[in-house]
Q: What sequence folds into this?
């Protein structure tokens, strides 16, 4: 007899709603139960990527087992189901960042592709010779190189907001950079190598006084703070799903509808057209205009599930737990006279970057790894930040809501071991 | 499971703490720059070559303990060697650090460099150990362009 495949839609574990219970929450993440080198995994590399709750993993399995099909095309049952789930996830993203409409949510491969999309589409149709684009000294390479390439091509100029030695942007310098040639501002909300939370409200307000559009790189913000693109009045907002406890290979570009409608397509092909003849093509409306080809359907649906997971926990609870971890780890690391913190801004996210005497961060990383502690070492794709502090690299511990004070203690124990090995 | 002390052997820690030949050598007539874009390790190797022999060799730069001690030990071992001898040694060294985990390693002819045999258990660190050597090869070839572990 044939066995019927009748798996049902996975349900969210709502046991964790209400009172924040980190031990309960950790059980939702299968990878946090595993051992690394005979020691329990202490995962402190959340700014690089986050771990996935069981519900997200289940959703990917469910999608491929039960409703895999192409979207926006077929009239058959599965295609309908896949399209519904794919568009439902877009609505969840829209709610999560408080966009006005779901058509303002464009799925991309990640934050990098989203920035490239804006640099190519908006940039190449609005930036000309002699124009200026403003970024900051603490940008990730993904928010430097696309603008640099654009400037080179258009003979435009890239201007950089400097930062102080605490790792805070010097706003007075930003105000001075703004002028009639400024055509775009692209700025990171939370620095991935310093943890600095930038005052994007103020940055956007000042740019808007001159009608300059602003892109905000929210890659490090979405997992930690309540995003409100309307309140902040961002023109564009980008982030990656994998940093939000969702799958890799899916990300989001939010853009104000009016801007997106007037932008030329970034890639062309199927699904982004309305009508094609060999003489002329009429493009589809947003968001489809910017989603050429078969998208990462499972990734988008999985991202929606990750958002459900976070909503269930509550972003306020998430932020509270992470703030506690930041405070505690800063205090514990400050006890070590060998440690120099890199990034001591007043407003910081739960991320701590440091150097240890003259011990290279990779040696720190390898020794911590032998204790099961995963941190990131290197320049974190922010080489200008390293240049500012005249260091080649830092060690970075970045926290998520599922981390604990006990894990911070293990990090500290590991650092003692590093100091011992290198004497 | 390999022990951390197999990677960070005393000799390596010592060369990291006080790197030998950490300077620009006199009468330098060959040099090259090496860079590992993944981790930012950055090194310069300087050679004084005459009659096909390495008369003097030195290095400068920044990097982790593995890359710095590898460069330092390389300079101590290559002084007086011919170009061909240096290349042969590189091949032996490369074979050992990139050998498969669990496979037997031929440490003969490696001399002091045998202390790097533990690196192969840490795949992420193999590039650290070999950066100085890749840079040396470029210096020997008189190529002025950057060596990169990503080539």
A:
């Amino acid at each position: 007899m044939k066995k019927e495949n009748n798996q049902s839609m996975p349900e969210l574990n709502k046991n964790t709603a209400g009172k924040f219970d980190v031990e309960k929450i950790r059980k939702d993440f299968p990878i946090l139960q595993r051992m690394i080198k005979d020691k329990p995994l202490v995962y402190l590399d959340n700014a690089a990527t986050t771990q996935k709750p069981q519900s997200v993993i289940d959703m990917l399995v469910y999608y491929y087992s039960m409703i895999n099909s192409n979207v926006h095309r077929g009239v058959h049952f599965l295609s309908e189901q896949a399209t519904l789930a794919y568009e439902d996830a877009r609505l969840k993203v829209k709610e999560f960042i408080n966009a006005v409409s779901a058509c303002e949510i464009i799925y991309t491969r990640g934050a990098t592709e989203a920035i490239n999309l804006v640099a190519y589409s908006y940039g190449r149709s609005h930036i000309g010779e002699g124009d200026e684009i403003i970024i900051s000294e603490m940008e990730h390479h993904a928010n430097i190189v696309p603008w640099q390439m654009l400037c080179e091509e258009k003979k435009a100029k890239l201007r950089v907001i400097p930062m102080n030695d605490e790792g805070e942007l010097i706003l007075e310098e930003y105000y001075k950079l703004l002028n009639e040639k400024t055509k775009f501002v692209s700025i990171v909300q939370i620095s991935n190598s310093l943890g600095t939370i930038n005052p994007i409200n103020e940055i956007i307000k000042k740019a808007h006084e001159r009608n300059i559009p602003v892109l905000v790189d929210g890659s490090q913000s979405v997992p930690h703070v309540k995003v409100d693109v309307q309140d902040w009045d961002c023109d564009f907002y980008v982030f990656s799903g994998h940093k939000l406890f969702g799958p890799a290979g899916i990300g989001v570009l939010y853009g104000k509808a009016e801007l997106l409608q007037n932008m030329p397509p970034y890639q062309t092909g199927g699904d982004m057209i309305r009508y094609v003849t060999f003489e002329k093509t009429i493009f589809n409306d947003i968001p489809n205009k910017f989603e050429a080809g078969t998208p990462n359907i499972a990734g988008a649906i999985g991202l929606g599930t990750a958002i459900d997971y976070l909503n269930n926990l509550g972003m306020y609870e998430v932020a509270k737990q992470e703030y506690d971890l930041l405070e505690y780890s800063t205090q514990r690391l400050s006890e070590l006279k060998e440690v120099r913190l890199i990034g001591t801004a007043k407003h910081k996210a739960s991320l701590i970057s440091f150097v240890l005497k003259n011990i290279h961060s990779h040696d720190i990383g390898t020794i911590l790894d032998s204790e099961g502690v995963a941190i990131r070492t290197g320049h974190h794709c922010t080489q200008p930040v390293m240049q500012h502090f005249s260091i080649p690299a830092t060690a970075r511990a970045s926290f998520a809501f599922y981390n604990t004070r006990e894990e911070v203690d293990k990090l500290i124990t590991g650092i003692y071991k590093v100091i011992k090995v290198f004497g | 499971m390999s022990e951390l002390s197999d990677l960070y052997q005393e000799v390596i820690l010592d060369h990291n703490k006080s790197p030998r030949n950490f300077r620009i050598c006199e009468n330098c007539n060959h040099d090259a720059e090496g860079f590992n874009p993944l981790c930012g390790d950055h090194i310069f190797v300087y050679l004084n070559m005459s009659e096909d022999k390495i008369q003097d060799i030195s290095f400068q730069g920044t990097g982790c303990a593995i890359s710095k001690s590898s460069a330092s030990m390389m300079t101590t071992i290559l002084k007086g060697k011919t170009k061909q001898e240096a290349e042969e040694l590189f091949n032996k060294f490369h074979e050992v650090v990139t050998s498969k985990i669990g496979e037997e390693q031929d440490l003969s002819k490696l001399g002091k460099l045998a202390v790097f045999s533990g690196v192969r258990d840490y795949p992420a660190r193999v590039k650290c150990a070999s950066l100085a050597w890749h840079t040396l090869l470029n210096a020997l070839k008189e190529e002025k362009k950057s060596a990169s572990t990503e080539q």
